[in-house]
Design goal:
By secondary structure, the chain is of the alpha+beta class. The protein has helices at about 5-20, 35-45, 55-60, 90-100, 120-125, 130-180, and strands spanning about 20-25, 50, 80-85, 105-110, 115. The protein has 2 domains: about 5-125, Alpha-Beta Plaits (2-Layer Sandwich); about 130-184. The chain is built from 6 helices and 5 strands.
Length: about 180
């Protein structure tokens, strides 16, 4: 690469590491071209960007960014998966692909300014997404209210049944007392 291109690439990487909500570094050793294309396609479909980068450029790109602590992980074949959406999407996509293909292997990651190791990335990949957590929370909040409504509806329904039974009984008594001869 010519010098101006390298400078521009370092600036792009610096912006990436400064702006991404999550960055996952991984070793893609063992993936052939076909599998790599499949992984990139899965990433694109999920809104995750997947880049293979030169370690020297990446080390320059992380300097003076929240991801500066990742500099030591840029050794050997390194790819970066990142997204601007939910923090665990890139981890989920890579973990699912790795289960089926035994690659890529996690090196480290950065989530909301905090460096995490491979074990924490796996834990992150198993967490439900933010929207799933919100729906679970909403269901938890809504559940007692639904239960209360059901109980109140049951009580009102039972009251209606009792009143209807009383009405029926009164009607029977009125019909049967109307049939009897008057004692006058």
């Amino acid at each position: 690469m010519a010098r101006p291109q390298k400078v521009q690439r370092v600036e792009e990487l610096s912006e990436l590491f400064s702006g991404a909500r999550s960055v996952i570094l991984n070793d893609f050793t063992g993936l052939n071209v076909e599998k790599m294309s499949e992984l990139r396609k899965l990433c694109r479909e999920s809104g995750v960007k997947y880049l293979v980068i030169k370690n020297t450029l990446a080390k320059r790109g992380v300097k003076d960014t929240p991801a500066a602590e990742l500099e030591s992980f840029f050794e050997g074949p390194t790819a970066v998966a990142y997204g601007d959406g939910e923090e665990n999407v890139s981890a989920k996509v890579l973990a699912k692909f790795a289960e089926e293909n035994e690659a890529p292997k996690f090196k480290a990651g950065l989530v909301e300014g905090r460096v995490i190791d491979a074990a924490e990335i796996m834990a992150l990949s198993k967490l439900p997404s933010r929207s799933e957590l919100l729906s679970l929370m909403l269901a938890g909040i809504k559940s007692p209210a639904n239960g209360l409504v059901s109980v109140l509806q049951g009580t009102v329904r039972n009251l209606v049944y009792v009143l209807d039974a009383i009405k029926g009984k009164k009607a029977e008594e009125g019909v049967s007392s109307g049939d009897a001869p008057a004692s006058e």
